[in-house]
Design brief:
The protein has 12 helices and 10 strands. It is an alpha/beta fold and about 260 residues long. The longest helix is centred in the first third of the chain and has 16 residues. The chain binds ligand LHQ.
Length: about 260
């Protein structure tokens, strides 16, 4: 698929998606939603991709739904259908992707753009970035999985307050709250985000994928269920080349070379 609204680049086992509608702070129109879903799927299917990096072109990460495109939409499509057909599929693809996703949050992440950032696994934010649940400004509730993802990251009180005030939360406060993993100077963001993604891509990525599955499943499990599932997944990891390599490297006092198998 040739993309019009995103860039897709592959470098040393890292696929990078750049949301690319900078004049609208990378607001999502239907094309950008469809292309981002397709690119995440492509990264999932490609055996040579072991980590996904996602960022925005220009000064924003994403300002969420393109409101002008939404006003001009086919009126037979309800908001619920728009979500089910678009953002829900995107969030499911990201959360279900058994490869780590690094979001390089370069600027404002608002509305559904915040949801996309939250659906990544590791957020590296520029000191110029901010997070905003813009929904209530247009009389809506948070969507794109935010009601599920955000209280789990920062707790109900902060998440609910972000939703009802729609205030911009600067990167430093977001880090303090546990919404981002680290904040870096804007000028170094992409260098650090690429280094993070390349480092992860050289790791035991089968185990990284299984860890994501175990932790995501745990949210809906009892301790007993989580222990059972964890033992099952560890059987899978325990049969991997990476497990053999990791143990061998430790005993031989050398650096391991992981393949993701
Ligand atoms: C935009 C947008 C935008 C279009 C900036 N659309 N043009 C799901 C299902 C169904 C329905 C609706 O929504 C959803 C999910 C959602 O995401 S709802 C929330 C939608 N997003 C928003 O409400 C955020 C709207 N944007 C803003 O409040 C501001 O742009 C923020 C605070 C993000 C950034 O402010 P500034 O840094 O001051 O930038 P700006 O406002 O000047 O924006 C730059 C340009 O981008 C500007 O265009 P212009 O032609 O005047 O230069 C904006 O109109 C355009 N833009 N966001 N979402």
């Amino acid at each position: 698929m040739t993309y019009q609204t995103i860039l897709y680049e592959l470098r040393d086992s890292v696929a990078c998606i750049t949301l690319n509608r900078p004049s609208k702070l990378n607001a999502f129109d239907d094309t950008m939603i469809a292309e981002t879903i397709d690119a995440v799927r492509q990264a999932g299917r490609a055996a040579d991709v072991r980590c996904l990096l996602i960022t925005g072109a220009g000064r924003g990460f994403s300002s969420g739904q393109d409101l002008s495109a939404f006003v001009d939409r086919d009126e037979n499509v309800t908001v619920g259908e728009h979500l089910r057909h678009g953002y829900h599929r995107l969030v499911r693809e990201m959360v279900g992707l058994e490869k780590p996703i690094v979001a390089a949050v370069n600027g404002v992440a608002a509305g559904a753009g915040c949801g996309v950032a939250l659906a990544a696994d590791v957020r590296v934010a520029s000191d110029a970035a901010s997070f905003m649940l813009a929904f209530s400004r247009v009389g809506l509730i948070p969507d794109s999985g935010i009601n599920w993802l955000l209280p789990r990251l920062i707790g109900y009180a902060r998440a609910y307050e972000m939703a009802i005030t729609a205030e911009r939360v600067p990167a430093a406060r977001a880090a303090e709250w546990g919404m981002v993993n680290r904040v870096v100077p804007a000028a170094q963001l992409m260098e650090i985000a690429w280094a993070t993604a390349l480092h992860l891509a050289a790791g035991p990525t089968l185990a990284f994928g299984l860890t994501k599955r175990a932790m995501m499943h745990s949210f809906n499990q009892t301790l007993e269920e989580a222990l059972t599932y964890e033992a099952y997944l560890q059987e899978v990891a325990g049969r991997s080349d990476d497990n053999r390599e990791g143990v061998g490297a430790f005993l031989e006092k050398r650096e391991p070379t992981f393949t993701g198998h």
